[in-house]
Amino acid sequence: MKLSLQYEMQRPSLDDHLVLSETLEQCVLADEVGFDYVWLVEHHFLTGFSASPCPDLIYAALSQRTERIRFGLGVVILPYHHPNRVAERVAMLDHLSHGRVDFGTGRSAPYELTGMGIDPRDSREMWEESLTIVPKIWSSDWFEYEGKYWQIPSRQILPKPYQDPHPPIWVAALQPATYDIAAEKGIGVLAFGSSAPESLAPYVKRYKDKVKNANPVGEFINGQWASSTLGICLENNKEARDLGTRSLKNFFGPDRPYVKDQKDIYKRLLESWGGVPDHLKQNFSRFVDVESGEEDTGNVLDFSGGSAIAHKVWEGLDADTLCDRGVVIAGDPDSCIEALKKHEKAGVDQIMIMMQTETIPHEKVMKSIELFGKYVIPEFNRE
């Protein structure tokens, strides 16, 4: 199982320059100690939650400071960008890094989409159309396309990627319907949101069974599953477990400013639309009550979203429960290894760990990365 770092780009106090400097320093160390990937998000308008609107620029800097770690675009929000520009920028970054790019894709959420002047109801179709176009640009000398959202006259679009035929393609996924779409299209799953690994195991198996028969949008099938969670590794087991759990609860907590700011937008959209399309219900249900049919609330260790699933969890589950179940990867090195093996047993190919949050200061993240390199990574890289 590959081990990766995931970044929203947060720190305990707002400082645009410091969070960038700290992120670069942490990623350089992660490369040195043996992490396989780093994944950076694309978010907009989420003050305090994410300071990462342009991950490709950060990766361009990191490409000149690192040697082996792969750069996961986690994710490029396809409705925001013309497919020509996506194809060009991803390919350019692939050259700068000598073929270390993975192309994660997504369609964002209504709060951000409306800020970009995009109707959220169009986001899935826009994502699908762009996802169809970009790999074809990479595999074509001259390319043209006439679609609903984008029209491209016959043009030669360069550069082509460094990797032959192109970088692996992924999609951000928070619900089973997206896992199925990923399998059909032959692209990897980026399962964002923290969940107990045993709750994900059936979905991982279903995806891997289905993806074998994919009709891939690219030139090959990427049948990998990557799960996301929060974590921290320190020498003091209790300190790390308490800190990691606090980080998780703050990150997903319902009272964060960036959550409150969104509620009004979601309520107004719900009122003006008179309902919510199926593909947006999971997202809306985090902020407002949505009639979404049957909802699985039995698994209280699923932090991936949904209406009131996690509210009981914030209040009711202690650090040991969350860490022992693998919802949080936190503790001393032995505890982290034990939790990670639960994800590996569930069939996960890669685990993305968010260490840098508004709860955890830079020096503790650096210590955690160092301990992972010394004790944890060798347990999973024995090939």
Describe the secondary structure blueprint for this structure:
Elements lengths: L1 E6 L8 H18 L3 E4 L14 H9 L6 E8 L5 H14 L4 E6 L3 H6 L7 H17 L3 E4 L4 E5 L13 E5 L2 H10 L2 E4 L5 H15 L13 E9 L3 H16 L4 H17 L4 H7 L26 H6 L2 H6 L3 E4 L1 H13 L4 E5 L7 H19 L3
Parallel strand pairs: 1-2, 1-11, 2-3, 3-4, 4-7, 7-8, 8-9, 9-10, 9-11
Antiparallel strand pairs: 5-6
Helix pairs in contact: 1-14, 2-3, 3-5, 6-7, 13-14
Molecular structure report:
The chain is an alpha/beta fold and 383 residues long. It has one domain (2-236, 328-380): Alpha-Beta Barrel (TIM Barrel), CATH 3.20.20. It has 14 helices and eleven strands. The protein has an eight-stranded parallel beta barrel, surrounded by eight helices. Strands 5-6 form a two-stranded antiparallel ribbon. Helix 3 crosses helix 5 (123-139), helix 6 (176-185) runs parallel beside helix 7 (197-211) and helix 13 packs across helix 14. The chain is globular, with a radius of gyration of 20 Å. It starts with a strand and ends with a helix. The relative contact order is 0.15. The model is unreliable at 292-312 (pLDDT under 50).
CATH architecture: Alpha-Beta Barrel
N- and C-termini, Cα separation: 11 Å
SS content category: alpha/beta
Strand order of the largest sheet: 1-2-3-4-7-8-9-11
CATH homologous superfamily label: Luciferase-like domain
Following the backbone from N to C, one meets helices and strands in this order, namely: EHEHEHEHHEEEHEHEHHHHHEHEH
Instruction: Sum up the overall morphology in one term.
Output: globular
Unreliable residue stretches:
292-312
Return the average pLDDT rounded to an integer: 88
| Total DSSP helices | 14
CATH topology: TIM Barrel
CATH class category name: Alpha Beta
